[in-house]
Amino acid sequence: MPSVKQTSIPGLLQIELDLIETPQGWFKESFQQAKLVDQGFPQVEFVQNNMAYTTEVGITRGIHAEAWDRYISPALGRLFTAIVDLREGATFGRLETFELTPGQAIFLPEGCGHSFCTLEPNTVYTYLLAAHWTPDAPRTMVNLFDPQLAVPWPLPKDQQHYVEADATAPYLDAVTPIRL
Residue ranges per domain, the chain? Predict the structure, then answer.
């Protein structure tokens, strides 16, 4: 039975999944709504399933907050992920970090910024979205290396592979909190 744990960011959930070892490898039930809801997961209707594949250690993206809930779980490899609450309120700017393997998942409510850094080559992760992605959807970005957030990246900056837009995004103090 999976377990769901509330974090210090309201609505951000850490999920431990059952990873069943087999002679051939392993099996997991990535998302089973009824079992998760029994553990305190919200009733969410996901409408899109995406997969991302990265070839190298140190692929780093984010910090992006989008206009939908997300459920993220690795299928292969390991990810360091940093989540920042960008919603208006007392927890604006609060940071939570996790290392995710295929036996874990996280649920990010709308308005929380997500970033990741791959810790193994050939990492694959899936993410479910509660709204359809479109290129013109609202997105709030925060600088990956904002000293106020001080994300404890597992690799030094010079060993990370990131896009310039993520490293030159505004710092948290210049971001308007997201009003939901």
Answer: 3-174
Catalytic residue among 71, 114, 125, 127: 127
Contact 171, 86 (CB under 8 A): no
Residue 127 annotated among the catalytic residues of the structure: yes
Query: In terms of DSSP H, where are the helices of 16-119?
Result: 33-38
| Proportion of the chain above pLDDT 70, given as a percent | 100
- Measured over the CA atoms of residue 174, residue 61, residue 88 and residue 95, the dihedral's sign is negative
pLDDT at 176 over 90: yes
Catalytic annotation, pick one of 64, 71, 114, 125: 64
pTM above 0.70, yes or no: yes
pLDDT band for position 60 (cuts 50, 70, 90)? very high
CATH superfamily, with its number, for domain 3-174: Jelly Rolls (2.60.120.10)
Is 114 a known active-site residue?
Answer: no
Position 56 scores a pLDDT of 97
